[in-house]
Amino acid sequence: MKRKIIVFFIILVWISNISFASVGDFTISDEAKLGKKFYVYITTHFPIVYDPYIVNYIRGIANRLKSALPPQPFDITVDVIYSPQINAFAGPGGHVFVYTGIIVLMDTEAELASVMSHEFAHVTQRHIAESIKRQKLFSIGSLVGVLAGSLVGSSVGHAVAVGSVAGVKSAMLKHTRKQEREADQVGIQYLVKAGYPAFAMVKAFLKLKKQKVLSGENSVPPYFLTHPGIEERISYLEQMQKFFPSKGRNISNKHFEKMKALVLAHYTDPDLALDLAPRLKDQCCRRLVKSFALLKKNKIKEAEQLIKDDYCEKKLEFWDREKGRFYFRLGKMADALKYLNRAIKLNDKDYFALYFRARIYGEEQQPKLAIDDLNKILEFVPFDSEIHTILGRIMGRYVSPFYGYIHYAYAALYKGDKDRVNKYWSRAKSLARSNQEKMALKKFEQEYNKWKKYW
Ligand SMILES: [Zn+2]
């Protein structure tokens, strides 16, 4: 009997899943507009991970899951936030964010895909639109901040109005139990359809539960502030997974391990990274993590010993880049340059390698080479505020003050810092003489008009 009820429930969820619902007065175009603003808000207020290896890997999982989704009004995007918090959320308009903290907690691609498939289901079921409509919040101006408060969790301490009116509204926008259940039940179907085993979702939730127990009352990870009733969820997912094939497609965990090694090496507390390194199966992944963790702990000799060896060059495609990065951090620029050059020769799309090389060129007073690399990086990440800042510093000093200010203005624009935009823009205006400079000003104005509506 129980079995029948569950099967019935699965079918029901399937049906509700076939077409996306239109939610009252909060239309798809309303949500898309809010989504863009929200995306700009999050990417300008939180540190985003740009490492192309990590980003491409995560987007690869996203694409696999997307192919299992019914036609969607939004193009789902996934970005990674650098934060030890155990969290992931789906903003309006299909903008999903995964924290490095939750990546660290997961041990396989399928487990990470489970977390993502749950978030994707919040998008396809339009849960945010549902909540906005339920609470009649669509007209309030600070919706972006309110939403951020509800999805990010109040423990983050960002300026998302904790304890204020917006804070209360944030609480109102949290997903309901029913929405969470639906996201699990629809999400697990996406997961299976994308070729992952259903039990991975149970495993992921068991890990989250363990973490909740470990973290104690005072520091419950934000994921649980928005995701109540974990015991109940584990129990119905355990029931559900029995109805799916027990095995997924054969997925090697090799790529997951490489990505996770980078996250542990660069986006994790070194003590935690050292604790977790032995759990990686590949010895080069372990070496990488240990080497950077020891470097952060100032155990330079041991750290260098681990990365010096050439053995891993053929095992990890980013080994040269990482070696260059290591020597860069150590201040051994000639060594750093040697390995970065090798890395770029191997893969000229690795804009992280270009980034470290540009910084070396900058410090070694080779402005032309630095500017070339920085401009190449901007082809991949045109809205990166930091790259524009560095470019501004170098161009201001070696090319002309005008180009210095115009890049500072771009940097401020992509950070959402209105005051600085105006300050640098007006300085650039006062300095523009040549036609080329006047054209650069025009281009900036167009970009400004595009972005200001998202503030
Ligand atoms: Zn959820």
The oligomeric state of the chains shown is: single chain
Over all CA atoms, what is the radius of gyration? 24 Å
Helix run count? 24
Portion in helices = 55-70%
Any chance you could write out the topology, listing elements then pairs?
Blueprint: H1 2-18, H2 28-45, H3 52-66, E1 77-81, E2 88-90, E3 95-99, H4 100-105, H5 109-124, H6 127-134, H7 143-152, H8 165-172, H9 177-193, H10 199-215, H11 222-226, H12 230-241, H13 254-266, H14 270-276, H15 283-296, H16 300-308, H17 319-330, H18 333-346, H19 351-363, H20 367-380, H21 385-398, H22 401-415, H23 418-431, H24 435-452
Parallel strand pairs: 1-3
Antiparallel strand pairs: 2-3
Helix pairs in contact: 1-9, 2-7, 3-5, 5-9, 5-10, 7-8, 9-12, 10-12, 13-15, 14-15, 15-16, 17-18, 17-19, 18-19, 19-20, 20-21, 21-22, 22-23, 22-24
The protein binds zinc ion.
Zinc ion (ZN) binds next to helix 5 and helix 9.
